[in-house]
Amino acid sequence: MRLFLHSILILFLYLSVRSWGNRIQSIYNFFSKNTIELLKNSIV
User: Fold this and answer.
1) Fewest beta carbons within 10 Å, which of 2, 7, 19, 25?
2) pLDDT score for 14
3) SS3 labels along 1-44
């Protein structure tokens, strides 16, 4: 029983970390794209 709860906890942690990673990655991509666009506009 304890092992079962332990595995559920690990699975939950893994999923939350993965979703946070995806969110951070998408935010980072969004900002990097916008920064590149701003740099292009300021150079031109």
Assistant:
1) 2
2) 94
3) CHHHHHHHHHHHHHHHHHHHHHHHHHHHHHHHHHHHHHHHHHHC
What type of residue is 31? F
Cα–Cα distance between 44 and 41 in angstroms, integer?
5
For 34, half-sphere exposure in the C-beta direction (CA atoms, 13 angstrom radius) is 6
User: Which pair of tokens denotes residue 44?
Assistant: 């031109």
pLDDT digits (tens, 9 = 90+) for 9-36: 999 999 999 999 999 999 999 999 999 8
As a whole number of angstroms, the distance between CA 16 and CA 22 comes to 10
